[in-house]
Structure formats: C-alpha cells, structure tokens
Design goal:
The relative contact order is 0.22. The chain starts with a helix and ends in a 22-residue tail after the last strand. Strands 6-5-4-3-2-1-11-10-9-8-7 form an 11-stranded antiparallel sheet. It has helices at 3-12, 31-46, 114-118; strands at 49-58, 63-71, 75-80, 86-91, 94-99, 104-109, 130-138, 141-148, 155-162, 167-175, 180-190. By secondary structure, it is mainly beta. It has one domain (3-15, 29-200): outer membrane lipoprotein receptor (LolB), chain A, CATH 2.50.20.10. It holds the Pfam family LolA. Keywords: Lipoprotein. InterPro entries: OM_lipoprot_carrier_LolA-like.
Length: 212
C-alpha cells in the first residue's frame, strides 16, 4: 500500500479552499434520509473514546492493518502494523504524519482532513463546509456520503454504519483522481480510558509511549 493511501484513509485528504466554478444543486433528502443523518450525527457525537483494530484497503489491492485510538474532540492515533511504516497522530489541533522508513514528518490542521468531521465535538455532516450528497438505507446498514460544500469535486468521505444498533463500521475516502481507500473497524471498544500521551506526537526513536 502506498504512503499516500495510508495518509488519505487516516485523515490526510486535504480539503482545499479553492472552488471549482459552479457547483451542482444539493440533493433533496427525504424524511427517512434526513432522520438517518441526524441519527448518525448523534451516534458519532456520543462516542467520547474509541479503540479498534482496522483493516485498510485501496482500489489497487493494497492492504494494511493496525490499531486506532480516538478521543473527542479532535484526537486520534493510527498505529500501523509492520511492514507499514506510518504513524498518524491527531493532537487536537494538527494531524502529524510520520514515516519511519524515510524519517519524514509532516502536519496538517485537523480541520482540513476527514478526521475533523469524524472527531468534532459535535458532529454535523450537513452543515458548514460539509454537505451530504447521498444517503443509502439498506437492511442493517446506513451509508452517508459527505463532500466539502465549496469544492465537492475534490473528493468525498463515505461513512458506513451497522443498524441496529447504529455503530460506525467503515469509512471510505475517494480523492479527486477517483482513488479509493477504505478503512474497516473491528474489535471496537468505546467509553474506555485512553492515556493522553498517545495523542502527543513524539518520534518513536525518542520515546513514544507504547500503545495499550
């Protein structure tokens, strides 16, 4: 799996402020779809802490696994299993990407990544810069696609929930070049205590705390 794909799914899809001319009209959501969006927002907002294993796959057949910790608001840690060499840490303000293979570190404001949507204090999928473009209601499943209102052609974030109970199971990032990266959660634990040190980025060779 390529480094770009690892970063995209973990939150590295940059949301540029450059509009692309006239935008299509917003889709009309029916009552059932609007209710599903409201339920999804409430379910996400209710998750204060989360730990899970994840399986990441891209449209070229690459895969990676790891462990993710999340804490609202705006904190996360994605620790990829070897042979992947990526560590992603959101500290509440920035998302830092570290690639130990090349000893390279870069950062983005969390609000410019999909993690800003997932980990906001109060999740709002269809307000502000977010716009819901599709809601699929299936047997035991709800799927919601969100784009950036000012630049929908840039990419999309699709959240997939099991229902009932309504629980986040997967998210998919598609970029402007139609490259897709999908992250599936399993072994999910919520409402747990997480060591705050996990959300502070320290290069591993300088003593990053061991995840637990």
């Amino acid at each position: 799996m390529r480094r770009r794909d690892l970063l995209a799914a973990a939150g590295g899809l940059t949301l540029s402020a450059q509009p692309l001319g006239a935008q299509p009209a917003a889709p009309v959501l029916g009552p059932a779809q609007r209710e599903a969006v409201a339920r999804a927002e409430a379910a996400l907002s209710a998750i204060r802490t989360l730990k899970a294993r994840f399986l990441q796959a891209d449209s070229r057949g690459g895969t990676a696994q790891g462990t993710v910790w999340m804490q609202r608001p705006n904190r996360a840690r994605f620790a990829y299993d070897p042979p992947a060499t990526i560590l992603v840490v959101a500290d509440g303000t920035f998302v830092t990407f570290f690639d130990s293979a090349v000893n390279q570190t870069s950062s983005l404001p969390i609000g410019s990544t999909p993690l800003g949507t997932l980990l906001a204090e109060r999740v709002r999928l269809d307000e502000g810069e977010g716009r819901v473009t599709a809601v699929q209601l299936g047997e035991g499943m709800i799927r919601i696609t969100v784009v950036k209102r000012s630049n929908p052609a840039e990419g999309s974030l699709t959240l997939t929930f099991s229902d009932p109970p309504l629980e986040l199971r997967q998210w998919t990032v598609i970029d402007a070049q139609a490259r897709e990266v999908r992250v599936t959660l399993y072994g999910v634990e919520t409402g747990i205590r997480i060591d705050p040190a996990l959300f502070r980025f320290v290069p591993p060779e300088f003593g990053t705390p061991a995840p637990g």
